[in-house]
Task: structure prediction
Amino acid sequence: MNSGILFGFLVYLALLAYIGWWANRYTKTEDQYFVGGRRVHVLAATLSDKASDFSGWLMLGYPGAAFSSGLGAFWAAIGCLFGTLADYVLIGPRLRIYAGKFRAITVPDYLEARLKDDTKLIRVLSALIIIIFMTAYVAAQFTAGGKTFAEGFGISDNTGILITVIILTAYVITGGFFAVVWTDVVQAMFMLLTLIIVPFLALSEIGGFDRATQIIGSADPAKLHPFGGATGIAAIIFAISYASWIVGYLGQPHIVTRYMSVEDPRKLRRPGIFISGTWTIIVLWGAFFAGFLGFAMYQAGILSVSDPEKVIPAMAVELMPSWLAGFVIAGIISAVMSTADSQLLVASSAIARDFYHKVLGKEIGKKQMVNISRLVVAGVALVGLWFALSGPKVIYQMVATAWGGLAVGFGPILTLSLWWKRATKEGAIVGMAYGLISEVLFEAKIYGWAFNPDAPGFFGTIGGWFNGIPVFFVNFFVTLIVIIIVSLLTKPPEDVVKLHEEIFRKVPIEGTGKKSITETRAKSQVENVAEFVLAKGIA
Result:
């Protein structure tokens, strides 16, 4: 084991340990444990949002896709960028306002209160969706951590997975949401620096971009084609298959929970979009070019890579001094941890708070709830560990499957409930149940993560129509339609409709205090609504 790499990593680990210790002082109640007491600064919430979003997929899965597919993989970056913007426009501000009104600290809290569900079915379905797909998502992060440790320290993937589980579970149990948010901020900066440095070092090593494209073109000309060499309908399907991540952003509980924690919903617009958008553009550019240039280095005999998804850690070890490579390895591990910690926290809230406390009606103290949640984190981590050790160990596909389940389960009902006053609990229950059952059947039993014509009978025919398109992309819109139809056939309570109209009615520019009409018009309507809501004491 290289002592320089180990030194750089241990310095990073010590920093995480200090943050966990510091955050524990502010984690005494479940409100603080799950949403940081709703006092998280927008900069911290925004960076935490993106760090928890991209995960080991950004540092291993996506560069691996660029390594394998070439220029066409850039469509995934486009999907992720526009998905990020959609989250901040469609979900963030309105969810924060509603969460403040209902004192909701989890997504199931919000959905149950917004749709006035007294059957507890929405909460039960939410818990099942979270437990099934979040555990699978956690397993993907553990696998990513295992691959990184294996490449950086010369150990087996399984040993690396065990180390990842131990480190990550320890600081989530210790610090709760504050630890997650502030370690995510540090991890976001590690990820940013890593994905700026590595591509430039690769360019220098390979002899420039022209030289890299020449090598890649000689090895496989399709890797220089924006659609992987496909034309016509096949080219459109190729682009959709990569860009389909966009719809998934609307339904990821570990991401949208960040919006519920921010101190001021107005800051989720311009400051939030600017910070998040800038960070996203830089890291996606870096991750893509790291994989793309890594393939050129591999073809030129400069780099030895046993697995395309290990290209960035392999480049760090090859191109950097050992101590600096240790920090890069730490940056990759940070990407893994920044998502898995959020997912563990959301999964623990689904079991401890949403099911044990709310559904079963077990009345316990707030401190006891935090302790139970910590036990649940350990339990979910063990299940995720088992899946990681026994699963396929292909991070891109593992993340796509879990991402899709959460996208279909939560995305349509979250979006409709925030923007459409006619959304009903019946529509939510039927839509979420369909989303859960169909995603499990289609992805686990019939198609895998993308449609294909190999399925038997009728399912094979459908698979032929959508061949190559991710299952969750089509299923998202089917679920959306199901919820709309059922909601139109049922009727929401009048007080629910009135509340929605009151909170999100168009705020007149007159009567907005001492500010001039010009100053008021300079703001977006969402910002004016948020200001009105805060002034009225609704949030």
